[in-house]
Amino acid sequence: MQSIIAFIVVFGSIVFFHELGHFIFAKRSGILVREFAIGFGPKILGITKGETLYTIRLLPLGGYVRMAGDDMDNIELQPGYRIGMQLNDKDEIEKIVLNQNKQLPDMLFLEVEKADLQKELWIEGYDEDEHLVRYDVARDAVINENGTETIIAPYDRQFNSKSLGKRAMTIFAGPLFNFILSCIIFIVIGLVQGIPTNEPVIADVVKGSPAQAAGIVKGDVVTAINGKAIDSWQELSEAIQNSPKKEMTLDVQRGGEKERIVLTPKEVVVNEQKMGQIGVQYSSPMEKNPLKAFSYGVEQTYTWTMKIFELLGMLVTGKFTLDALSGPVGIYKATEEVAKYGWTNVMNWAAILSINLGIMNLLPLPALDGGRLLFFGFEAIRGKPIDRQKEGMVHFVGIMLLMILMIVVTWNDIQRFFF
């Protein structure tokens, strides 16, 4: 149960923040957002607030923000349609009823001749006396079809009516919010747990090591190496590793006294590389500082971003295979393992996953945010958008290929963890 809760919290938070980025920037651009969904498939829970339906769906494999103007979103009234109408106090149509046998109060009927529900907002047709009449349509009118109501979307509230910059920012905001979430999580970890000071303090000395033989003891603070001042454990570690079988002098601070210690690191081979080792252990003191926690959050987000890009490069060059990739099952099993070591580790894992999702979505592949941004780039170069049908076909093929990849990766996960 702990693993399930951890997975739901981690994966749900990452997906929520990603879609929240799209949602906020769509709203700021004046785009009508029809649905904000977490998950795919059948609806489990749905709440309508304002003009947006907020849903939780059965399959927790992602989410989406459905904006007006997307494929299959446009509503057209064909000539010959018989519709019911309700008017507001300005004699504008505020509700259009389709496929409804039951007559609502104050309903008028019309056989449609022409209609424009996007730009000029009007409907023209024959009334019950067979007179040709024309009605204006309110900007917030709704269409009721078989009991389901949908708000019409005037063209200026559709995604494709917006400037290239606003469209690109709306799409880019999803991955951007994943990086922001990662930064926030690392900042919270820094505030709660503290920031490693990275001071060159000796936490312990291995018995029989060069360090013990030279007289280094627990609690010593190394201040200089071969006369050169240092202030971080990383500097100490690198100097020792780069000096196998080479005599070196360490200046240490011990209980208010200064000591000078001469020793020679022994040689060890790690990944076919010769490295120096003196047999000391490190345990960084933790410091709670809000300003340092902020810089720690930014620094960790940047560090992990670079590491993930490095791993992507290894995948492209063939150093990794598809067997090394994990899908939802692999993420669940990894979260289950991480959850054993406390919520701080779960938070750290969530931050790394959020960066991973942000980077994956920025890849210039069809159906991903990066693929859509690539088409916007072509539009900026050409000076006009690519044909929507052609772009839609490319994204459809991309979705199919991603689904196949997801099936392969999930099957690998099942094989790896359960058989």
UniProtKB/TrEMBL annotation:
Pfam families: PDZ_6 (PF17820), Peptidase_M50 (PF02163). It is a multi-pass membrane protein. The keyword Nucleotide-binding does not apply. Residues 201-267 form the PDZ domain. GO terms for cellular component: membrane. It is found in: Membrane. GO terms for molecular function: metal ion binding; metalloendopeptidase activity. SUPFAM superfamilies: PDZ domain-like. Its EC number is 3.4.24.-. One of its GO terms (biological process) is proteolysis. The chain crosses the membrane at residues 6-25, 171-192, 392-411. Signal peptide: none annotated. Its cofactor is Zn(2+). It is an enzyme of class 3 (hydrolase). CDD domains: cpPDZ_EcRseP-like, S2P-M50_PDZ_RseP-like. It comes from the Bacteria. Keywords: Hydrolase, Membrane, Metal-binding, Metalloprotease, Protease, Transmembrane, Transmembrane helix, Zinc. Belongs to the peptidase M50B family. NCBIfam families: RIP metalloprotease RseP. This is Zinc metalloprotease. It comes from Viridibacillus arvi. The lineage of its organism: Bacteria, Bacillati, Bacillota, Bacilli, Bacillales.
